[in-house]
User: Fold this.
Amino acid sequence: MKRIKIIDLIAKPTIGSEVTIKGWVRTFRSNRFIAINDGSTINNIQAVVDYEKIEESLLKRITTGSSISVFGKVIESQGKGQSIEIEVKSFEILGDANPEEFPLQPKKHSLEFLREIAHLRFRTNTFGAISRVRHSMIFAIHKFFNDKGFFNIHTPIITGSDAEGAGEMFRVTTLNLNKLPKTDTGNIDFKEDFFGKETNLTVSGQLEAELAALALGQVYTFGPTFRAENSNTTRHLAEFWMIEPEVAFNDLNDNMDLAEEMLKYCVKYALDNCTEDINFLAARLEDEDKSKPKEQRSLPLIEKLRFVVENDFVRLTYTEAIEILKRSKPNQNGQFKYQIKDWGADLQSEHERFLVEKEFKKPVILTDYPSEIKAFYMRQNDDNKTVRAMDILFPGIGEIVGGSQREERMEILKQKIKKFNIPEESVWWYLETRKFGTVPHAGFGLGFERLMLFVTGMTNIRDVIPFPRTPKNAEF
Ligand code: 4AD
Ligand code: MG
Assistant:
């Protein structure tokens, strides 16, 4: 008999019908009640066995983590907690899980411990819920852009350029590291390398997305990006996924509108379509918060999500933000690790979080940053000091989106490239879009795992991607 998924059975149960369920045993109580989960939903189905009719040796094999196929009748549940259950007629153990060795027992495991067994943590309620929400968010993002007439573009993962100019790149090479070819001047001869030049994993698909936008109008990428920054924080990964829309003829205001609309769409999509998983994650967060002092507790998850959907983001300039920060209490009494003294200072996450969580209590979009602390491609303002940049800051997260209107004027872009010490010949193809039919355009990058942190209420970015890559960690 073909198996029915638990999600479908619960959605449309026919009392009295016979079904086959396949899944993994979560718990087995009183030699009678098996809670089975098949991953299709956070909900388990309860299968009830008549232990008197079953051999002891077979009953013993129904353990947490084992896989099982049960055949039986759908009946109204006698117990609390579920509306239906299965009266088992026959069952088969598909795969044993020795309880002496299986590390996931029906008790609370710490998130740290679960990271060490990331190959099995999908089988917990928390990671099942996160994985399903992650899928829904991927789907929502594609739907959002598709419905608006954007085209998805695959940009290269191996590149010869440093899009952000930050130099935090993973090298890609096939050279023998024990016998590196050298040039006459003693440098490594990359002509001998696979691509005949220096290459790395991409830090961003933006530059290539711009090329596409300047022909297709509105495009977006959704791909893996890699940063070799040695930041061991709860918000940084060495390999993360980024969504980068790029739109011809858009200015910074259009760009902010698009980003705000997209974020609200995704959060609303989660509320509307991932209700059970979000409810579970909300309860998890509430439980976790109980052990924290009151002032460190976060808003209940669902309240926080609704708040973002229903309220306009605050928009202000970097210069205005610096004034607020300079006057702020934590700046005056030394509570910030990095005191804000002068205009031009780069904002740290403590400053971003102060603005969002204390000053405005809303998502904030900061614009017009000093050109020195932003990338070369951002459009220069008439003051010659600031650029048309924007960062979106979220409660509990800090920066979730970074973007800008792009410098479309060839001469100014060339000056900027020089100032940033970028060899012109390495970006000749990028410059040609300004030579041939240049137009104003703008785009941004959304860090997918930062969005996942916000939507799930998880606090460590290692817990919202299946197999995190961080400094000194590439297991699995
Ligand atoms: O601000 P970033 O560096 O901007 C860019 O890469 C631009 N090319 C985007 C564009 O305009 N098309 O990165 C964009 C976002 C950040 O706001 C943050 O959410 C996320 O990517 N991000 C990271 N997420 C996880 N781990 C890291 N190490 C991240 N670095 C950036
Ligand atoms: Mg940024």
User: Anything to note?
Assistant: The pocket of magnesium ion (ligand 2) is lined by residues 391, 399, 402 (CB under 6 Å). The CA atoms of residues 238 and 469 lie 5 Å apart.
